[in-house]
């Protein structure tokens, strides 16, 4: 197997570590961390803040995923700083790499155009692999099959406030499927045909569109055009069974068949956001306003009484909520 759980033996070290405690949190949930070995310093910093603000009381597990094998150092240092059990998985080849159905000549031309136009990550194939993986594959990984809810964590992010209510249990008890802290506009040059492709899918499958959906969040003209609004997906607390649903899976397969992850540079943020806005009810999407969070260069800092309640250490005046 290309997957190794360190809830066993790892290069002479016995796991679980003393630090790994039985789970106290009541939800079927895990943290999910996609990372590269060289990001270790930024990863352990994110983990330390997650433990400090939340998980030291709950001991939810962590699943680390990588397209390459994790190094012993990565496993050592990450397993040391968390209170929940840890597992490390390698991503199956076809869930990560550009499919052979993609016309590489056309994809390369598009990358070169984007580089010329200064599109961020426009020349990167690995960034496209990452966006496609996060859009349609992470929740199919064998290490995640046993879990329903997840919290995505990235290297070098901050968690500013004590989290006293379990957000996984909150989603479950309120029948919500997607939680965010920051939303913003996507660069149009990365997704020129994403909305036309989405509309084509919806014409084929109108039955998947939820009643009382959040179309108004993503379109200002009743669906004619996409307004580029999306949830910033480096932070997500969400329900993987929603991504595993027929509606979203068919949507992802349709998008993937059009090749836009490679011929353009479709991000997992607009793809997840459009999926959530169309296939879930508006009331199933949740703004976690009490969770202080930063991913450079933006942050959500809870305001007023919430700032006090959470003992937040962010500057309240630095808050993205009402920025463009
Ligand atoms: P940004 O937040 O859009 O600037 O992109 P990041 O560089 O932070 O990448 C997003 C997430 O995917 C982070 O958790 C990265 O660690 C991870 N990631 C990006 N590219 C790769 C890659 O090639 N391999 C692996 N294993 N993880 C990656
Ligand atoms: Mn990032």
From TrEMBL:
Keywords: Glycosyltransferase, Membrane, Transferase, Transmembrane, Transmembrane helix. One of its GO terms (biological process) is protein N-linked glycosylation. One of its GO terms (molecular function) is alpha-1,2-mannosyltransferase activity. The keyword Translocase does not apply. It comes from the Eukaryota. Belongs to the glycosyltransferase 15 family. This is Probable mannosyltransferase involved in N-linked and O-linked glycosylation. The lineage of its organism: Eukaryota, Fungi, Dikarya, Basidiomycota, Agaricomycotina. The chain holds residues 70 to 393 of 393 of the full protein.
